Amino acid sequence: MAHEEYDAVVIGAGFAGLYMLHRLRGLGMSAVVLERAGGVGGTWYWNRYPGARCDSESYYYCYSFDRGLEQEWTWTERYPRQPEIRAYLDHVADRFDLRRDIRLSTTVTGARADADGRGWTVTTDTGRDVHCRYLVTAVGCLSAANVPDLPGLADFAGRWFHTGAWPHDGVDVTGRRVGVVGTGSTGIQAIPVLAAQAAHLTVLQRTPNYSIPARNGPLGAGEADAYKADYARIREVQAGSTNGHPFVVNPQSALDVGDDERERVYRAAWERGGLRFRASYADLLADEAANATASDFIRDRIREVVADPATAEALLPHDHGFATKRPPIDTGYFETYNRDDVTLVDVRADPVEAVEPGGLRLRSGARHELDDLVFATGFDALTGPLLRLDPVGPDGTALSDAWRAGPRTYLGLAVSGFPNLFTVTGPFSPSVLTNMPTSIEHHVDWIAGCLEHLRATGRDRIEADPAAEHEWGEHNRAAAEATLLPRAASSWYLGANVPGKPAVFMPYAGGFARYVATCDDVARGGYRGFRLSGSRAAA
Ligand code: NAP
């Protein structure tokens, strides 16, 4: 059967896929988006767990590419809830008339490069396969769920869920004994909400976490209007930042100020709430002693909030410094442990041995009776979504073979041996260390510019050069090692949460603005580090 032919195929209809389609249309290219879900939204389609909301503030966790869109959409809370972000992305899909080129409920089952590396055949579970010149993965960094391989799970008599595949009708836990495994950003958002409804909540904690109060609240019309009026400046600050957030990091060292002054700065950041706490001092992620001042401050706050000293002690993170793992923000997380109907269990000291029909059995023999089990156990991050697609290059090499020892990419945008494949926010790009829409827009714009260049110069094949890729990998390693980030041994940035995953620090830690400058420079230099060729090339 003849395949349908497109200039480009995009996999995924979240923030990245929607904008990529819009840009491809703008270039006059034919394109289709293939999406596994029954709607647009990507991560915000799937993550419907109780308490799901964004940790970036609404006024900048959104697209910046269209001034009209910026002005007409009004966010209602400081941190948008999952349904509000989904509504926003639905609005974007309608406003830019994207839906006619999005194929929902379509899972990609394979992607194979043509022998000459000038195209891709993409197969799907609907049987409607497509062929394209360029393949763009817009599959997100956190879309492959990580469910622990616990013996006995199949025999559990209750219900179990992963937060990243939450039932669309919601889950009523009224009157039920619920167990939550995991205290990352997701668990920390879900735990207070589940505790308020369940008869009893048991939290199974492997690694205690730092968390900063979100201080969420409604966004008044005045505030929303003020942000709208200020977008030109806000976007400029984001573009020049380390993390794509619109705030400037205090250039001082935490060690260059007196104890009282430092305490005052941390108190103010704690009261203001949110991820901006990280911007309190310039060296929080560069110097262990500086980091310790923030870590100590947060541990003191946990001790203050949690009434039972033994529970407070068990909640104190000691194995990593603040923000060396992605820091959660919360609404009433530590306060939840003051409830009589919440129990904290340390599964680092006493791991889960097996799931039994009636609950969990720990190594010590202790049992926890449960009706529902919630896995807030995170994702096979960054590489997982790409390896699940497992594209096959022109010489028959699968990505899973090429990445056996860990990922390698050029700029997080391309992989040698896989021509005409672009990976939006792939490994070794700033991605999860940044405000995601900011990184996504940058990648999509860069890819669009590259496709324009290929067309203008009569090229139809682009492939990362292995030497440039190697150099970029080394630069990534050095950038990460210049920070404290790789020292958090249990970090998903390193793949440590997935048994057997190669320990490679995956996001680019050199900073967003520096990364953008590098990508611009590569483009200006005629796509240095890429091999460009074309059946129609003039020279
Ligand atoms: P996560 O940060 O990887 O946390 C997973 C939790 O499950 C950790 O506490 C982990 O312990 C625990 N865990 C994993 N496997 C386990 C096992 N076999 N036994 C016991 N415990 C286990 O995942 P997440 O909370 O879903 O968050 C992932 C990322 O998604 C975040 O860091 C953030 O970037 C993003 N996110 C964003 C938002 C937002 O902006 N609204 C909300 C949620 C998530 P260890 O630490 O010991 O591995």
UniProtKB/TrEMBL annotation:
Cofactor(s) demanded: FAD
Gene3D superfamilies reported for this sequence: FAD/NAD(P)-binding domain
One GO MF term attached to the UniProt entry: oxidoreductase activity
Enzyme class (EC, first level): oxidoreductase
Keyword annotations from UniProtKB, A to Z: FAD, Flavoprotein, Monooxygenase, NADP, Oxidoreductase
EC number: 1.14.13.-
Family of this protein: Belongs to the FAD-binding monooxygenase family.
Name of this protein: NAD(P)/FAD-dependent oxidoreductase
Organism, as annotated: Pseudonocardia spirodelae
